[in-house]
Amino acid sequence: MQMRPELLLPEALVFAGGLVVLLGGSFLPRDRQWVARVVAALVLLGAAGAAVVAMAGPAQSAFSGTFAVDTATGAARVIAALTTLLVLGVAAGEIAGSPRESDTYALLLFATTGVMVLAGSTDLLVLTAGFLLASIPLYGIIGLTGGRSGAEAAMKTYLMGALSGILLMLGVTVLYALAGGTDYALLRDVLPTAPAGAVGAGVLGVLAGLLFKAGGVPFHFWVPDAAQGSGATAATFLTTVPKAGALVAVYRLVDTVSSGDGSWLVVAAVLATASMVLGNLAAYWQSDPRRLLGWSTVSQVGFLLVPVAAAGRSDLALPSLLFYLAAYAVTNVAAFAVTAALPEHRELTAYRGLARARPGLALALLVALLGLVGTPPLAVFVGKLATATAAWDGGHGWLALVVVLNSLLSLFYYLRWVAPVFARPAADSPEFRGPGGAAAWPAATAGAAAALSLALGVLAGVLWAALEGPLLS
Questions:
Q1: How far apart are CA 200 and CA 132, in angstroms?
Q2: Measured on CA atoms in the order 275, 277, 279, 282, is the torsion positive or negative?
Q3: 472 neighbors 463 (Cβ within 8 angstroms)
Q4: Rounded to whole angstroms, how far apart are CA atoms 88 and 21?
Q5: What is the pLDDT of residues 289-325, one digit of tens each?
């Protein structure tokens, strides 16, 4: 048995960093809690560096083939680590000096470890462990950063997480009974000859848990409530980082069970369509910016599921998924960081006149919202183009059309937020505080994330044009 624990160095670094922050933070005075933030940031940078080094080598496996160290795992590691690093920038302006500051940083690191484990899992038992490690700290993050409304959001998230977790474990049990094991290689060989009804029940159970983590239909109901009721730190994290692990795990599972059977690709296409349409329609009626972004993230999960429907049929499927995850991560963080910089502005109309009072922040918000729509040359545009191309190559031309139509539909509710930003301020418009104080960190994070979205989009667009074909293939 080849254990090779050194291949899990990024996960070990982040988890050990969480323990150090948790224990060390209890000995730090209230005005020195920033030390825990610095330690967390260094750990995340180290984990991202270790993941990049691992990606440069050949694909390998650890713990007897139950954990894959390949391009997908490496990309998810880097996305999760660097996005959590950006979340620390939001947290620095919201929870600095609070009684639970170091505890929150520790929970963020533990949840990020679970996300990384989810991404590399090639065994259902490891997948279950990753799901629990990514879920349990999340409940605490939501409750700690949101006050009374955060407690309610944490309870809703916990109830949905408990239900989906039970379904996931039931699915694992059924698949284990059918295959006699939990390894993906074994499932790929045995499931095609197993009873179709039992296989369907097992796979759908596992997908239920993963879709909860991703925030997709039908286990999406907690996302807008948690985004609205929790603090900006929790809202930014929960709508961004878990997707990196959950959607890579969904891709691996669907790719495994769809071997020789395209029905699961159709299921992925239907789930993608449902998430896109429902998320966009529900977002249109929202007046709270964070709740709007919560429904927006449900629709974005639909776009991210599009390449899953082309798994095994298009060479562009996995690269487009990984690029879209990176593009969405930085763009979504930019949007939430703007709301964190303006915590008292909880209505879209309250942003009226922002461009005159805080032009830098208004520009970051504009880049973020146009990025989420999928406007060139921003990164999400290239991601949507690549995923639609993958769907077309995979034989789902209708799904590529759904991507285009839903991108146009999303433009309307994002414009409901953009319009007040650049409108002339009214006499009773609320004042916007300056960039100093606690709001400086989120404002800087918003600008950095927006700049990353623009730079990533331009770079990817140049590569696409130069290759005149599949992105990053």
A1: 23
A2: negative
A3: yes
A4: 13
A5: 999 999 999 999 999 999 999 998 999 999 999 999 9
Residue 472 has a pLDDT of 42
Residue given tokens 């031309």 in the structure block: 397
Handedness of CA 453, 378, 77, 173 (dihedral sign): positive
Q: Note the pLDDT of residue 152.
A: 86
The answer to whether 107 touches 144, Cβ cutoff 8 Å, is yes
Assigned token pair, 409: 């539909």
pLDDT tens sequence across 408-457:
999 999 999 999 999 888 766 667 766 666 668 999 999 999 999 999 99
The pLDDT assigned to 471 comes to 42
Q: Which residues contact 424 (CB under 8 A, 6 or more apart)?
A: 353, 356
Rounded Cα gap, residues 375 and 384, in angstroms: 10
> How is residue 119 written in tokens?
């991404």
